[in-house]
Amino acid sequence: MATRTSLQKTLGIGLTLGVTLLWLVGVTASGLVAQHEMNEVFDSALEETAQRILPLAVTDILNRENDTGNQRAPALKDHDEYLTYLVRDEQGNLLLRSHDANPEVFGTTPIEGFSNTSTHRLYGAFAVSNTIYLEVAEPLAHRRESALEAGLALLMPLVVLIPVSLLGVWWIVRLSLRKVVDFQQDIESRGAGDLTPVAENQLPREFKPIAIAVNRLLERLHRALESERSFTANSAHELRTPLATALAKVQRLKTRIFDDQVKKNVTEIEEALRSLSTLSGKLLELAKAEGGGALSQNPHDLVPVLAIIVRDFEDQVPGRIVQSLPEQEVSSFLDPDAFAILVRNLIENALKHGSPNQPVEVSLEDNGTLRVCNGGDSVPPDQLILLRNRFTRSKTDASGSGLGLAIADAIAKGAGMPLHLRSPVTGRQDGFEVVMNVINTW
Ligand SMILES: Nc1ncnc2c1ncn2[C@@H]1O[C@H](COP(=O)(O)OP(=O)(O)OP(=O)(O)O)[C@@H](O)[C@H]1O
Ligand SMILES: [Mg+2]
Question: pLDDT exceeding 70 applies to what percent of the chain?
């Protein structure tokens, strides 16, 4: 599976490694060329020295009055010798040597021209009809040291070059990707309900198709949501009107009937029509909640919405609701219509399923925590976790279809806000409590 890497990091490391590698190849090539050239210069100096010493040595040896053999050339002043030399005759007898020369460094038989031992580079030259042999030796360590110093001098800039190129690449990549990062943050920071097009003008050419595709997708999503909303609204209208007409006709019919049995039957039809009407309303609410649109594009203050809903219920059941609303605004991206549907279902449940002798507490805090709580028998945990499912009800005497909590849950999920069901109420032995935060999203 491909791991997610940062483009900035990959480019920064990749380009720096590439530059470093190329530099190393360049340094190696230049080092080899420099070493070759240096060897040529050293060889030429070695040869030149031998050719210079040879006539002097020959004159010196031939001018000797008596052949005393091994003689050491005197040093004018004390010094270290890079180059040492040895002069021998054809029998291998030592005739002359430089003051530091070590005969063991030289081979037993002299070789004309250049040759190598394990430690020295030698140059041999013959004179006086090949009777006098001169050999000059130069330590190889000297050459190696020179090559090493040249190589190090070429490598030194890398110490500065690597951090500088890493910084440079990082800076250029960051500069070029700035608009892309802005684009990414723009998408990340917008709420799930914000379907306005993303800005595509500032993006580099390579990323523009992505922005165009995202905008097309957003537009299609927007159209789909719009058509779903209008379908839901139309269906609601189409269903409600005939049901309301039928209910009105049945109620009128009831007033004209005097036979008790027939009146009882008509009342049953009226009840059935009424619950059908409620069920269709709930189904439409559920369809709307599941169809999205739980979030709005702009934040709204939800306190007045909650106050109106509570007042509506107050009119129906005076004194049962204890409300606690914040002084200041509670601004939320939760769509006010969706919030109204959610709260209505929760308060309706609390009134319907809670103990009639105990109040229903409805509270909204400054931090956005909404809490609807009622007394009564607590719901067992195994049933509690199932109550969000459609048409699922626990033990209750009240009428209903089991859709209210499914609607509330769909709205909360659509808005990305967790809905908590608790029974018994926190800190009590009984009751049922629903808690949700209308500001924090997942
Ligand atoms: N506030 C509450 N107190 C006690 N029990 C509750 C409460 N809210 C829900 N319940 C239990 O959860 C079940 C499911 O609730 P839900 O709102 O989904 O359906 P309903 O209220 O029975 O019917 P509908 O809401 O469709 O009219 C209820 O039948 C009830 O048993
Ligand atoms: Mg309900």
Answer: 93
